[in-house]
Structure formats: C-alpha cells, structure tokens
Amino acid sequence: MMTFRESIRPSADLRNHYNEISRQCRENKEAVIVTVNGRGDTVSIAYEEYRRMKARIELLEILAEAEEDVKFGRVAPVQETFDDIRKMLMEEKL
Predict the structure, then answer these.
(1) How many Cβ atoms are within 10 Å of 25's Cβ, its own excluded?
(2) Is residue 75 within 8 Å of residue 69, measured between CB atoms?
C-alpha cells in the first residue's frame, strides 16, 4: 500500500523555499499540498514517487479491463489462444 506523509504549504513557499520543498518531497517521500488563498491547489511529490504511482495506476487499469473481460465472457481457453498464436507465426513463415 502506498502512503504519503503530507504537509501543507502556501504557494509563496514555492518561490521562497523551493529547495526545501523539493528536499522534503524526495528525502521524506512526502506530498506537499500547495495552497492558494488557504485552499488546496496543487500537490508536489518526488519524481520517482510520481513514476511509481503512475505505473500502479496503469496496472490497475489493465487489471480492471481484464476483470471486465471475464465478467462479460470475453475470454478464451489458454490452449486455444496459444494455438492461434502458433498458427499466426506459422503463416508468417510461409
């Protein structure tokens, strides 16, 4: 499970304390919520954390599609699938 520690900072801190915020995100694996006029506006996270989060979301989307395929019967036996692939490969050789 992915958990982020969070802190809240005003938008002026981006200008005045960028290096500190960047370090906070990278070293502490912390999400920094940036506010404008006291309301949440954006979130800053370390690039590596962003990449991990994006990969997890993509995997979840693939799993959701597969689950939907099973639910609606859009599946075939594994042996049939492999036979179809072998047939296609054999046809390409000709």
Answers:
(1) 22
(2) yes
For the chain, the domain total comes to 2
pLDDT of 2 strictly over 90: no
- The Cα–Cα gap between 42 and 18 comes to 14
Contact 38, 49 (CB under 8 A): no
Domain that holds residue 88: 48-93
User: What pLDDT, on a 0 to 100 scale, did the predictor assign at position 4?
Assistant: 76
CATH (domain of 31): 3.40.1620.10
Q: Please tell me the predicted confidence (pLDDT) of residue 17.
A: 97
The CA distance from 38 to 24, in Å, is 21
List the Cα angle 42/45/50 in 5-degree steps: 110
> In this predicted structure, what is the pLDDT of residue 92?
85
Same domain, 89 and 52: yes
What's the predicted TM-score (pTM) here? 0.71
User: What mean pLDDT comes out for the span 56-74?
Assistant: 96
